[in-house]
Structures are given as C-alpha cells and as structure tokens.
Amino acid sequence: MFETPMTVVGRVVTDLRRRVVGDQEVISFRVASNSRRRTGDGAWEPGNSLYITVNCWGRLVTGVGAALYKGAPVIVSGIVHTSEYEDKDGVKRSSLEMRANAVGPDLARVIARIEQPPRPRDGEDETSPAAEADESDPAEPDPLVLSA
Q: What is the model's pTM?
C-alpha cells in the first residue's frame, strides 16, 4: 500500500471525538488549513482551504485529549489516505483522512506549557497508580503532554 506523509498547519474545527475501536481508543477531529495572499494594494484575500479528519491512536490519545480543543492552532503530521463511503442518500463520497503520528500546538499562534508524565517502573503497567518517574530509556523517547 502506498503511504503519503503530510504535515498540516491549521485549526481544530470540531470537538474532539473519543471512541473505542476494537480494543483501542482513538480520538478524531477535523482540521482546517486556510491560505490567504496579499493583493497588489497590500490587503489580504482568502485563498483555498483544506479540511482533513485526523485520527490519533495509541500514545497520542492521552496528550491530544488533554491539550486540544475546538479552535486550537495545531500542527499535525501523519499518513494521509482517502476514505470512500456512501452518504444517507446512497451517493458515493470521499474524504481526506490522516492517521497522525505527531500532533502539537502551533507555537507561532499559542503559548504552551509542556508536562512530562511519570514513567512506569519495570513490571508496572502504564495505568498503575503506583507508577512513578524512573530513569529514562534512551531507546524510547518520553511521551509529552501539551497544554495551552
């Protein structure tokens, strides 16, 4: 299967939707990326817009769920594909979707504080309340929780 990597800079335009698919959680939201250009007289005029559905799986669910909200300026990076479906009237439609591998605030448009959650000790699962910070494993980067 051909995979198309893409990075989109824009704003979250829907409420975040958290759901369970199989045995995994996913958070989905739509991002709008709007362009504009300066005219000859110095005024700005709107250009084209891109709307994309972003799906966040795995470790992204926690950070995205804690930090993002409708209207948040974001930068999302991931693999893009077209999802084809039939609407309620039986008309074939398609939409652009991204399986995100990185999501963060657009620091040109927002100030964010970065928090690092405690890492579980060997033998403890990540949801254990007894999990405390431990030595970092350089082979695996620490997860980040971003908040604006």
A: 0.73
